[in-house]
Amino acid sequence: MREITVAIGQYRHRSQDGGATWVKSFREIPGRHTPVVRGTVDLSCLPSRPRETVWDFVSILPDGFGIAVNHEATGAGLLRPGEPGERAHMFRTQDGGRTWHEHELKVTWKLTQTFRRATMSWPVEKFTSLELSSSGAVVLSWEDPWIFEGAKSHALYSRDRGESWCYHGLGHTNAFLAADGSERLLAPNDGFFLESVDGGATWSRREFTVEWPPGHPHKQVNLLRHLKFVEPEGGFALVVHWYCGTSFAPVHVGLLQSTDGGTHWRHVHVFDGPDIGDVNERHMLTLDVR
Questions:
Q1: Are β-strands 264-272 and 209-211 bridged in parallel, bridged antiparallel, or unpaired?
Q2: Environment class of residue 25 by beta-carbon count within 10 Å: exposed (0-12), middle (13-18) or buried (19+)?
Q3: Is the peptide bond before 217 cis (omega within 30 degrees of 0)?
Q4: Cα–Cα 20 to 30 A to 253, which of 20, 132, 160, 267?
Q5: How far from 144 is each of 80, 172, 232, CA to CA, in Å?
Q6: C-beta separation of 89 from 56 below 8 A
Q7: pLDDT tens for residues 37-82?
Q8: How far is Cα 146 from Cα 156, in angstroms, rounded to an integer?
Q9: How far is 16 from 254, CA to CA, in rounded Å?
Q10: Long-range contacts, stretch 246-255, CB < 8 angstroms, 24+ apart
Q11: What are phi and psi of 274, to 5 degrees?
Q12: Are 6 and 287 contacting, i.e. CB atoms less than 8 angstroms apart?
């Protein structure tokens, strides 16, 4: 049986029988600036930064290789309104996070992409996702700031542990990535994935369906969050049950399961949504499956 932990706002819901029964308890919500961490990480070893800095993601593999990304204030503001106010930076470790070194994103641009850089958010202000595979392949994604007209998502991928990078445009989709443990990457959107099986070099669209509870009265937005694949064909995810029209009642959060690699998802359980904070804030919703 799988042990599943769903954290929603100030509560933690834990099941030790695959979602059949649940135990609810209080939890302390991590600070908004606490990074998303994967692997064994000592956050106190992250390098000190001279400017206002927020660490976004830190991932370390069992062999000691790891990637950390942050975004820092640039000092641009009223004096330079045309420049971004923040800029993302990447750091690498080879010793399990004891020491970190900033590493330049050396991107190999194709000719057509060189011209496109003028119409996209480059340099990156803030990364949205970091995926680090067991082979050392790295994928970073980000979204254009909301002020961009016709905002799009983008990805950088590296097959040599961050020494060199290539770019791929994801188009009008979310930049939140998920991996299934077999080098497959998914960028979920409302009712479809962008799927890559070659480490982020090429992407294809793949439709999926969600089986909603009978008589469900809410707006059915099939935007999956926090995908966790426990085996190539089996995984779990969260979905927010948005209300139709204007309502100030708390939303619900559904725990979904797929047994066919992500093509079809069914509800395992429906939880009350958070009673404090914004459901979209970092750490407000988390999912852990063991």
A1: parallel
A2: exposed
A3: no
A4: 132
A5: 19, 10, 31
A6: no
A7: 999 999 999 999 877 899 999 999 999 999 999 999 887 655 556 6
A8: 20
A9: 18
A10: 250/274, 250/275, 251/218, 251/279, 252/218, 253/6, 253/8, 253/279, 253/285, 254/213, 255/4, 255/6, 255/19, 255/287
A11: -65, 140
A12: yes
- What are the pLDDT digits (tens) for 197-252? 998 999 999 999 999 988 776 677 889 999 999 988 899 999 999 876 666 667 89
pTM, to two decimals: 0.91
| DSSP secondary structure letters along 134-185 | TTS-EEEEEE--TTSTT--EEEEEESSTTSSEEEEEEESS----EE-SSS-E
Cα 128 to the center of its chain, rounded Å: 6
| DSSP secondary structure of 191-226 | TEEEEESSTTS--EEEE-EEEPPTT--SB-----EE
Structure tokens at 149: 């007209």
CA-based nearest residue to 288, from 231, 212, 226 = 226
CB of 196 closer than 8 Å to CB of 180? no
> Helix (H, G, I), strand (E, B), or coil: what is residue 117?
helix
Q: Name 125's Cβ contacts closer than 8 Å, sequence gap at least 6.
A: 71, 84, 85, 86, 87, 88, 142, 145
Residue 186 · residue 262 · CB < 8 Å: yes
Could you tell me which residues come within 8 angstroms of residue 76 by beta carbon, excluding any fewer than 6 positions away?
Answer: 83, 84, 85
- Using the structure block, give the residue that is written with the tokens 């009673």: 275
Burial class (CB in 10 A: 0-12, 13-18, 19+), 124: buried
Q: How far is CA 56 from CA 94, 130, 179, 221, 238, in A?
A: 19, 9, 18, 26, 21
Position 133: which residue type? S
Helix (H, G, I), strand (E, B) or coil at 113: helix
